[in-house]
Design goal:
mainly alpha; single chain; about 150 residues
Length: about 150
């Protein structure tokens, strides 16, 4: 997630500066980038996107999830109807797709209801003030001498 902090900070109004660095070829070892790491990065991007875009209005993300579940339920329902009309005729009471379709409809409806019960007046997180190092006052609650810490 630390790779995404400059993009997120820039999105909320911070100024980003780049510093030149000296790149050199790897002297030994292998790169630590892999498919697993790329999947983690994609999940971080998704979570950052959901936090930023849906933080003020989660109704969009929950409504989209509800729409997807209802579409899957519709597809399951169509498959059940086709299986009933085309030989070999599968009985509806013996078909598990009916249970899956009903379950998807129920979960989709619950997500849609949850979207409407979330309060919309939640404040969006932001930086209130930037303190200079001279303004910081470090305090400690540890009563031991500094040599024993």
């Amino acid at each position: 997630m630390h790779r995404l902090l400059p993009a997120h900070a820039s999105g909320v109004g911070a100024r980003i500066a780049e510093l030149p660095v000296a790149h050199r070829p790897r002297s030994y070892g292998r790169s630590k980038h892999s498919r697993v790491r790329n999947v983690r990065l994609a999940l971080d991007v998704l979570s950052l996107r959901l936090r930023g875009g849906a933080a003020g209005s989660p109704i969009y993300s929950l409504g989209f999830a509800s729409l997807v579940l209802w579409a899957l339920a519709l597809v399951c329902g169509v498959v059940v109807i086709v299986q009933r009309l085309v030989p070999p005729y599968v009985h509806v009471h013996a078909n598990l797709l009916v249970v899956l379709a009903v379950g998807l409809m129920i979960v989709g409806g619950q997500l849609l209801l949850a979207a409407f019960t979330i309060p919309r007046s939640q404040p969006v997180y932001g930086v209130r003030a930037v303190l200079e190092s001279s303004q910081l006052r470090l305090t400690t609650t540890d009563q031991r001498p500094a040599a024993q810490r």
